[in-house]
Amino acid sequence: MVKRLIIAVILLGLIVAGIVGFNLFRDRMISEFFAGRTPPPVAVSVTVAEATNWRPGLDAVGTALAAQGVDLSVEAAGVVREILFAPNDHVSAGDQLVQIDDRMEQADLAAAIAAQELAETELARSRTLRERGVSTANTLDTAEATATEARSRVQRLRAVLEQKQSVAPFNGIIGIPRIEAGQYVTPGTVYATLQDLDHMRVDFSLPEQESGIVKIGMPVTMSSEVGGVTARGEIAGIEPRIDPNSRLVTVRAEVENPGGRITPGQFMRVRVELPPEEGVIALPQTTVSSTLYGDSVYIVRPAEAEGEPERVEQVFVTLGRRAGNVVEIVEGVEPGDRVVNAGQNRLSGNAAVTIDNEVAPVRSVEPAPGEQAAAEAEAAAEAEAAAVPDAAADPGKAGEAPAPAATE
What we know:
Strand order of the largest sheet: 3-12-15-14-13-16
Strand content: 25-35%
Number of helices: 4
Radius of gyration: 42 Å
Order of helices and strands: HEEEEEEEHHEEEEEEEEEEEEEEEEEH
Low-confidence stretches: 363-371, 388-408
Helix content: 25-40%
CATH topology of the largest domain: conserved putative lor/sdh protein from methanococcus maripaludis s2 fold
Number of domains: 4
Mean pLDDT: 82
Shape: rod-shaped
């Protein structure tokens, strides 16, 4: 019985030793296999870092306003006798727009003119008699006072009649009438809006940290969310007071609007163009990987020996300003460095790579930041300027619809 137990224990020990030995042998062979295996190079695309001309700017959102735009209202009470405009009419300064019933005032003016003529006659007679010495000074003074009062009454009635006639204060486009003929109106009743669409203003706000950067006369580029409208202007005014609630300062820019493409009240994106800077390294934002440890990029380093693949180095960088799809690299990248812009999710430090720029999401950072919007605005302005003489030279083509643009 004891002999059988000993044999069973020995067999069990041999089985356990065999299993443990096999596992150890298998783990060692797997480790040796993977230790001798080199992972294939990762295909990445790169952007060569270059010192470029950076066109910095301050971005904001604003609201378009007409340089001259008012809500027109009547000055005198009465019944509307005639409306002398239609919606969207182009009116000139001094054009009559609304006529209020003034028949009673016209009658009063006729009586006042007659009284004035009589007073003037009495004054002339009193002066003649005074010169002859047959009239007293008191009589002459009374005649002069009566004549002055008659003239004042006539001037007052004429002013009342002018209030009954509403006229355009400046050139512009008038809106939809808000009153009807025969309606009784009181002073201050708004009857239409008048907007000068040839000259526009855009009001926008900037943080107080940027209030000291902007100056009157700085160029401004504006674009709308609808229709792709772009325009260029310049800063015309800066509010001297910062709003204590929002800590923002209000800035006003003026822009020409010859085509009437910008409408008062329209939402606008504004960029204040600052003086250009040279020697700035800007890279696509896709090159930067952000983690809890900071912002970093992968830079491709040359192979250490012939026949070996190129490898990447993870470098932590300091970021600066952003514009569009590019970001300024303040520290960490030197001109000429090849920075990975696609495929970073498969990389680690010292990983082997092969460069394939066919997978690049961003092939370059040109044009320089801030130049694209300015170039589009300048091109639009040149196109409008060229269209004006063409329309004058051939009036028959002025009303033709433009041909559709060719698309690639």
